Amino acid sequence: MDAHRRPLMDRTPALLVEGYAWLPDRMRDSTRSVLRTRLLGRPALAVRGPDAVRFFYDESHVHRHGAIPAPVLDTLFGQGAVHTLDGVAHRTRKELFLPLLEAGRVARLTEHVTEAWDEAVRSWSGRERVVLFDEAAVVLTRGVCEWAGVPPRAVDPQTLARDLVAMVDGFATPGPRHLRARRARTRQETRMAGLIEEVRSGEVAAPEDSVLERVARHRDTGQGPLDPRTAAVELLNVLRPTVAVSWFVAFAAHALHRWPAHRERLRAGDAAFATAFAHEVRRFYPFAPFLGGRTVTELTWHGESVPAGGILLLDVYGQHHDEELWGDPYTFRPERFLDRPPGPDELIPQGGGDPAAGHRCPGERVTVGLLEALAVRLARLECTVPAQDLRIPLRRVPTRPRSGFVVTGVRAP
Length: 413
What we know:
Blueprint: H1 12-18, H2 22-27, E1 34-39, E2 42-47, H3 50-56, E3 62-63, H4 70-77, H5 87-94, H6 103-124, E4 130-131, H7 132-148, H8 157-169, H9 176-201, H10 211-217, H11 228-243, H12 245-258, H13 263-267, H14 271-284, E5 291-295, E6 299-301, E7 304-306, E8 311-314, H15 316-320, H16 323-326, H17 336-339, H18 364-380, E9 382-384, E10 406-411
Parallel strand pairs: 2-8
Antiparallel strand pairs: 1-2, 3-5, 4-10, 5-8, 6-7, 9-10
GO molecular function: heme binding; iron ion binding; monooxygenase activity; oxidoreductase activity, acting on paired donors, with incorporation or reduction of molecular oxygen
Binding site for heme: 361
């Protein structure tokens, strides 16, 4: 048998052990940025690079329906979520989200979050120790719930923040973190489904054209309103990714601690630099290791093939640290994005392609806007960073600074 076509060993156990390095390490020896492997019992083809991003997001190549493993649906996205749909069904469901993410609405969300941040900082000044990751999650929860029209009586920000963080933290790992994520999703889907029913019955008045009101009245093509559980899933798919920005806030604090020279331009309110800094945080620090989809037909990329029903993987972490794309990928250098904005198929922490028609996360603009604003506030934060474990383990997915980034002696402005 041709050695090139011998049955491939399933690499799922290695992925669970190696984390972010699993795919880049195996692709390092490839001169064509492509790799044949086996994952979750299926043949898989891993690709990388802007051309590969366009190949990956071609709907004639890859479908999401049936591609996302059940453990990920049961924790991160939710059963029946927009992420599981394709074609017309996907575009129709996505219309629920796109108007919410126009520039004016993103600006209002940023205002709600920064007001919550400024209020929180005043309370931190009386505390001995503050874990920025945890506090950022609560701040983001308060801000996004107010913006989304979720009534204060319906949620406890501390509990909701903890559950939304758990959904993200446990999607990619077995064990206690995964069990916490499942329990958190069940708890919040039940709570939000009840809220949807209260809105529909008139018991709760949702602000006109708010996220809550839009989710409650949305109809897929040729169907009635979403069932309460699916509506709850989609409401959480606005709240959860916003609160996931807490990962990037912790990374931004880590970057400012390691490279404090960047503080001056952020403190001065240099808007262009704040945008470049946000992009570099999203590129440099690890979040999604890769993206995957189920192949519709046999696909060939740079001479390597995967059959229909296999898996096509897009190496996100490897692409963000590709020397051909970035020149000095392991140097944290926001200035690279002052020279030119990132190409849509180069920087892909929220996916690639067209957010209006494809599977790129429409919330990317929210992530960038919030990170710009909060990076400026982090640069202006008067505090002490005590000795702590700031290592970022690449075996943990999703990872973050081990300490959560602790600060002491916060001085209110």
